[in-house]
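Morning run. Coffee first, then this:
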Amino acid sequence: MHPAIFIGTFILLGGLFALQDWVSLRLWGYRASLSIALEAWGLQYFLWGVLCWLLWQWFGTQIQRVSAVRILTIVLPLSIVTSVAEEMIWVPFFPNLPLDRPHMDYWHRLSFQLSGELLDNMVIFWCVFGMFRAIGYYLKFREKENTAAQLEVQLANAKISALQMQLNPHFLFNTMNSISSLMRIDIDAADTMLEQLGGLLRVTLERGDAQFISLHDEMEFIEMYLAMQDKRYEGRVLQSMAIDPELYDAVVPAMILQPIVENAYAHGLSKLEGSGILSIEAHKEGNRLRLSVLNSGLGLVPNGEKRSGGQGVGLANTYSRLQLHYGEDHSFQICETDRDKVLVTLTFPLRLSQNPAESITRFGAL
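And here it is:
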């Protein structure tokens, strides 16, 4: 509804009518001037553009809400007044029109124009009025869509926050159990592990309710967690990480790997009598990010029966958060690569932070 665009569209429409009128007259054998046709039609539709734009500016809100009764009692008379006013302004600019009639004074020319143009002018008025009403309905529809989208985002934020609130106590409870077990056999190691837990909690508090962080921050958290587990298992687990350097600025959901690594220890590595391996990798696959965690253990189906460990709080939480963040545009797979090795793989769209130092706290924001 910018005046230049709105009025310019009317002038363009007038030019098209002028061209059509001129071509028709030429086909009928009349010698008509194209410049006069363009001036007459152009000015007429310029005036209509100005008048209709002013109506929108002054009465746009009322037009959206006007009732059928007011349309008949107010808008209908207004359409007649506007149609007459447009002709009253237009007539003085063309004293020699119509060309096929003898010279007439202002009022006779106005009467002549109204007899032929009043109905056409009212059609223009009511077409514009219908367009204004349609624009109002469209704006209301878009407003409802935007409101629904905002509510959907707020709901998703609430669900993810609830999942994070569920995840943090679960992680803390499991870690405290590990420290409690270690207290009976190695007090110094338990004390070190408690200090490491304090560091992890500090990082968690500094993040606040951030739902997305950089992969670099996520891997720093994982390294601290692995150091704590290494102390508990006395170096029996060979830990390795392979992260593509260009992916450190990739945006990932906060604590997306910790539940998987925790699950690897709880349901795999802790069951081994000897040494084990834990490998974490991050690679780029086209425009997607692939995160994988491989661990040795008892596999997914020991003794011919499927274990329920893969369906614990941690993994279920991870799957739910991926679903909320990415919808169907992600994959979450758990499989056995060997009889005693389990591989968990996550893939989702690769997004790079524009400002790696800045915390990303809004749902889906980059």
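Strands lie at 212-214, 237-243, 251-253, 276-285, 288-296, 331-338, 341-349. Good start to the day.
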